[in-house]
Amino acid sequence: MSVFRTHVLLPVDEGTAQAGVFEVKRRLEKELQARKLQGEVKVLESGSVGIVGRGVILAVYPDRMVYFNIHEDDIPRIIDEHLLKGRVVAGLEHAPVAAMAAGTAGARVGLTREQRRIVLDKAWTVDPENINEVLATGGYKALERIFTEKSSPEAVIEEIKKSGLRGRGGAGFPTGMKWEFTRKAAGEDKYVICNADEGEPGTFKDRLILEGDPHKLIEAMTIAGYAIGASRGFVYIRGEYQLSIERLGKAIAQANEYGLLGKNILESGFSFELEIKKGAGAYVCGEETALIESLEGKRGNPRVKPPYPVTHGLWQKPTAVNNVETLANVPAIIANGAEWFRRIGTDKCPGTKVFTILGHVEYPGLVETDMGTPLREIIFGYGGGIRGGKKFKAALLGGAAGVFLSEKLLDVRMDFESLKENKAVLGSGAVLVMDEGTSIADMLFSIAKFFAHESCGQCAPCRIGTRQILNIAYRIRQGNGRAGDAETMLRLAETMFKSSLCPLGQSLIMPVRSALENFKEEFALAGGQAVKS
Amino acid sequence: MEAQALHIPDNEQYRELKRFIDASREVPGPLIQVLHRAQKIFGYLPLEVQHFVARELNVSLSRVFGVVTFYNFFRMDPIGDHIVNMCLGTACHVKGASEIIKALEKELGIQVGGTTADRFYTLSTARCFGACGLAPVLMLDEEVHGRLNPQKAVQILREMKARTAAAAREGVVKDKEEK
Can you tell me the distance from the alpha carbon of A366 to that of A204, in angstroms, rounded to the nearest whole number? Predict the structure, then answer.
């Protein structure tokens, strides 16, 4: 094995691909060859940094320096100045990795300011396709700790319970309790499922984990399997996430080869098989029982609950279904202890949350920061405020099944409890920002259309309700609203909330009610007499 | 009746699918994975293929049809050489995705879901791709194009078409030279 003195990392995602990361890579390899440096400097593709609009990003290790907006013609300078002489290239935009990866304060505004990265700590700073790099940077340490200290499954569950970790998929259910229910459920065969059917509009957090640090997920699922007594796990990934599927597939193969997965893991006697299942594109499959139906090869129609998957899940066996981000917290909790985790975030919602900041902001992208961070800080701190000097109008939190918040609620803290007090939800962590030029009636129409399309049609309230709400939202948007329209829409959504089978039908009330309550004037204006004032 | 109606041609495509099905028989609930493979082989899932899958997996045709029509990813109609998939997620919507759709429909002379007469483009829409930072985005085959406006989107399609035409001309010239 050759030893390289320097590694150059090129984070790859749609943004950097469009900006020409592959041209930069080719040029870099060519120039290195011309200078006979290919044996000293290794060029790698890594996961996304989560920053959008900064062009091609290039990181140099071990110097821990990141360059932005790199053009292929900058390459000779980077090689001659930085890679040969060890000097940061003046004139190119740069920042220390630490400011972005782990968090010593960098910029005050924008995505390069201080973050706290637990689930994304390695997401772009290691080669996700090389298990050795992952092992060298603390990967699989938690798994090793469990087996060397001979922790019992009950002790693992206890640690997760103590940490206060709650599901990051949207519902916020305590993870330790879910595991405990599954462990205690009767039956020999049990399963762990990772829900990676990330489909909430405006959300791409799970994808960064899958593409940037797939081994973390493997380690977490193995720990979950050990804790609940499962010997098989499935990762249900969206069919569109091709790169995630490839990278996770490679990672699984490597983990198997290294004895970190498969039979008799780390000589502990515990065996765990992990398999990827590719989804076929249905929003409703993000609901856990619909996902299970889909895994069984059927239409993704949600099941009637109870019984819950913890007792009757995949093939009617006890099953723990966890979101990618939730699982990605597990290794750090086991490695550092529940006490450490509890010190981060808020009392009732410990830990961090990954937020995607989108829409009319200066710096769209992704941040991981403490639970309970005020919304204002996310939009104006990380997001850099409203683009083009315009005024803030609304934020849609939590994807399509989310809530519209007005300026009055900008100081709300972003955690499950505080948002609930304000009739809002954290959901997937998507923060879609809208400026003064946005029509909320139009946004509500777009959401109604989405729900009408994605309703699986199994239960009447959702199948019919989504269609009726769409009709009303359409005519309000067109300026043809009728008297009583707003009330009808709200009543329909309330009926759906009370009587739909699954969270899809139950959650349309969130955007409908928040739009009507927080942007009353707009519906009066857009809908003629739609809202009685 | 049923058996006679189901005449499956004996060709390499079906043989490949049969091999995949045989290999996944031990896996419980293989239907969706089998359909994924079938669509990869045939490009779409006509009734004939669905009949074949139903027979081979010993499930009812209605079950197969139900699954095919449930999921976005499965298609029952042939598609063009290239798929244009416009994202209609909230982040893209707020940045004007519907204007782009209109421009694309006008440029191609088809509606969403349609295929151009020369079978070059199929125009489709999708829910969020998870590339929201670049909104509004479209996917042309496997490649994501972001920060679009109607002009840029149309330009991308025209360039693709021009490139293909140029490549075809070059191919013809080469063929002639070789002869």
Answer: 8
Set of chain A residues whose Cβ sits within 8 Å of the Cβ of B60: none
Q: What ranges do the domains of chain A cover?
A: 6-101, 131-342, 352-435, 440-526
* φ, ψ dihedrals at A193, nearest 5°: -120, 135
The answer to whether the beta carbons of residues A81 and A75 sit under 8 Å apart is: no
pLDDT at position B133 over 70: yes
What is the per-residue pLDDT across A363-376, written as a single tens digit (0 to 9) for each?
A: 888 899 999 999 99
pTM equals: 0.90
Torsion over CA: A263, A265, A270, A276 (sign): negative
Identify the CATH assignment for A352-435 out of 3.10.180.10, 3.30.1330.10, 3.10.20.600, 3.20.20.140.
3.10.20.600
Residues of chain A with pLDDT under 70: 1-2, 97-112, 525-533
B33 contacts A295? CB cut-off 8 A: no
CATH topology of domain A131-342: Rossmann fold (3.40.50)
Give helix B47-57 / helix B31-42 axis angle, nearest 10°.
Answer: 140
B chain contacts of residue A199, beta-carbon cutoff 8 Å: 127-128
Q: Does A15 sit within 8 Å of B93, measured CB to CB? A: no
Chain A residues closer than 8 Å to B70 by CB = 282, 299-300, 456
The mean predicted confidence, pLDDT, of chain B is 90
Residue A103, pLDDT score:
42
